[in-house]
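Troubleshooting log. The previous structure file for this entry was overwritten by mistake, so regenerating from the original sequence record. Sequence copied from the archived sheet and checked twice against the printout by T.R.
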Amino acid sequence: MPLHPQAEAYLKRFPTDLGVPISSLTPGEIVRMRGDDAFAVQRGPRTPLPVVRDDVAAGVPVRVYRPEEGGRPLPAIVYFHGGGWVFGSVERNDALGRDLSARNGAVVVSVDYRLAPEHPFPAAADDAWAAVEDVFARPEAYGADPARIAVCGDSAGGNLAAVAAWRARDAGLRLVHQMLIYPVLDVAMDTPSYRACATGFGLGADEMAWFAEQYGGDPADPALVPLRLADKAGLPPATVITAEYDPLRDEAETYAARLASAGVPVELRRYDGAVHGFFGLPGFFDQAAEARGYAASRFGEAFR
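Regenerated output below.
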């Protein structure tokens, strides 16, 4: 498919993901960029909810969203934001956290994991897992139903969700679903989609290499590269969402295929003409609402 017209218009305004030359990014520049949000309006409205509170899950800052007051146990989504393990925050993704809660009738626990390069691998993965463990250990603190807990993440957050999913399996904790939205699942960067989408489609191969360098870690470690996990049997049912014009497309679709081969129920949906990041920017992309509706249908099946 050709680029979606909305993706084409977006790329004319924002031709690269970071918007600055990678070589210029000093530690101070990284910190300054974390405080900016050029897409604040395009992230969508901040849906009013009766309960939005900041808390701490096993030492990790989180923001908890509930679509209703009271302590009635609700299904729970532990959400990890994107940003290449370097950028992003709970505050920057507040609109999406609210939307996930309202759209799915669920408690959403949005995790403010530590960021690289100050906190390299495995800090983010460890924080993600600590938050998931805490929701299982103290469901009453969140008003969560311990039998209906899912993980969700986009981009680098999808990486953290996938890692948390296999850690939960290995710990004997049953997640009902893993929602992986254009996730980072490998750092080899040698797929056809990496070559075809290396430049000119927003997130570029050079930027992904820079993100991976900041995070660090062993490329053979499944806590960094879930695609390398030897045994995928028994992982939670999965939904994998990809964008056609995204260097990460092939690794995510390969992961979905390998989950299916291991007997894991999985559904893959590619959004034709789309670019990386579309899910979080409903102000730019109509496909964001479409994909969020699809994700909600998948969560609904899992929670039922």
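Residues 5-303 form a domain with the Rossmann fold fold (CATH 3.40.50.1820). Archived copy saved in two places this time.
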